[in-house]
Amino acid sequence: MKNKKTAVGSVKKKCFIETFFQTHDLVTAKQMLSSIMQYAVNGKDWLKKDSSVILQFHESLNLFIREGYMISKKANKWQVNAAPYISSPMMKGYMSDKEYENPTLVFKRAFKEYSIQEYDYFISGIVYFSQQMYRNGPESNLVRPYIHLLKMLDAAYLMLEGGVQKK
């Protein structure tokens, strides 16, 4: 019995970000988020994808945000390996040069401006409004949290590809 407990206890816990990108590659995740956002602000049409796919993506983003929050709180304890040189600015996504060199800055800045609850509200709102036609749409500013979320996806992917070490 002790061997089973030891074997289970020694199994490494997977980072959710790694699991997120195994389920949704970076391009697909950004396209899905952009589609949901587009339909949410449009109001004249609704996203005609299977609602279970959208809800599963919604849940994945919620967990991604929580993991991002933990990264922002522990950013000083981790060092991201040097990012490869990128010749095209398009490859950086929305990240600045400084953020590209240290992707944890993206998470720190994102959670300095908005709380987890505000990101939850944003994601729930755009999913809700993308699933129906409406006359009066979302009342809050959707652009800033959307850009932060795109940057977090880019930064998390960069961290996953480059590797992270404890300082």
Care to describe what's here?
The longest helix has 23 residues, at 51-73. This protein is mostly helical and 167 residues long. Strands 1-2 form a two-stranded antiparallel sheet. It is 63% helix and 4% strand. It is globular and about 45 Å long.
Keywords:
167 residues; 8 helices; two-stranded antiparallel ribbon; single chain; 2 strands; mainly alpha
Our estimate of the beta-strand percent is: under 5%
Element order: H for helix, E for strand: HHHHEHHHHE
Read across the widest sheet, the strand sequence of neighbours is 1-2
Shape: globular
Quickly describe the structure:
This protein has 167 residues and is mainly α. 63% of the residues lie in helices and 4% in strands.
Helix-strand layout with pairing:
Layout: H1 2-9, H2 16-23, H3 26-42, H4 51-73, E1 78-80, H5 97-101, H6 104-113, H7 116-130, H8 143-162, E2 164-166
Helix pairs in contact: 3-7, 3-8, 4-6, 4-7, 6-8
